Amino acid sequence: MSASGEPRNAAGAAGRTYPPVTFRIEAERAAEFARAIGADPAAGVPPTFAAVYSLGVTAPQLFGDTLAAVDFARLLHAEQEFTWSRHPRPGETVTSQARVASDIRRRGVRFVNFETETKDEAGAVVCRSRALFVIRS
Amino acid sequence: MPVPGAVRDSVLSERSVRFTKEQIAAYAQASGDHNPIHLDDDFARSVGLPGLIAHGMLQMGLMGVVAAEAAGGPDKLTRLYCRFAGMVLPGDTVTFTAEPAGPGKLELRAVNQKGEAVLTKSSADFNQ
């Protein structure tokens, strides 16, 4: 998977950005997700379906980026934040683009803030995701 | 420290969930996250875990349902934040609660049957 930006050392992936990824929100997929978390499938796309349409489509770009050198086996997902201007509806296609917002090493532990911005077909931002990945040495 | 099972007066919404391998597998299928630490006990132990564990994002999903209820509906949620503090194993029961924390704000908690917080410092914002 290609990424823009100069190649950096293993602890310095800050600033790397990834190509946009589109995802079509299928009604049946959203309903299955709702059932898996005990939400009412008739209440629309659950807010945390962002785990699929936002973080879910961009995190693999980070994990597959050999230059970022994020060791998936030593990684903990420590924090997650989503903010929404609105929740997308079934049938919508959304486009997500991610970047490594910060990459800091402290006492042998690496903290990577991975941010994703998701837009609707009109180009309006519907969701922002921030994942804190903690990677132990 | 909150006593497991006790409901404080200010709790707006609460749900207790007993985690099972089947539910965790269903979340893996629904989310597309098939990391074997969530699906395979032997694999989980081989990387130092006590056995397979629930996805943090499954806990966040369940927390989000409780937050949405407290907010008056999922469409009203504008922000959800969770810090994953503890592992959840099949057989654990986690109680998720939402309490008011100011206008349009919720304080969220998730505590297991031993009184340990599995989510900390978690919160949500909503449109009133």
Q: What report would you give on this structure?
A:
The complex is a heterodimer of chains A (137) and B (128). By secondary structure, chain A is of the alpha+beta class. Helices cover 17% and strands 37% of the residues of chain A. Chain A has helices at residues 27-36, 50-53, 55-63; strands at residues 21-24, 75-84, 93-106, 109-119, 125-136. Chain A has a five-stranded antiparallel beta sheet with strand order 1-3-4-5-2, covered by helices on one side. Residues 5-10 of chain A have low confidence and may be disordered. A five-stranded antiparallel beta sheet of chain B has the order 1-3-4-5-2, covered by helices on one side. Chain B is elongated. Chain B has helices at residues 21-31, 41-46, 56-71, and strands at 13-18, 77-84, 93-100, 105-112, 117-126. Chain B has three helices and five strands, in the order βαααββββ. The longest helix of chain B has 16 residues, at 56-71. The mean pLDDT of chain B is 94. Chain B has 128 residues and is an alpha+beta fold. The chains are: A alpha+beta (137), B alpha+beta (128). Chains A and B meet through α1 and β2 of A and α1, α3 and β2 of B. β2 of chain A pairs antiparallel with β2 (77-84) of chain B, so a sheet runs across the interface.
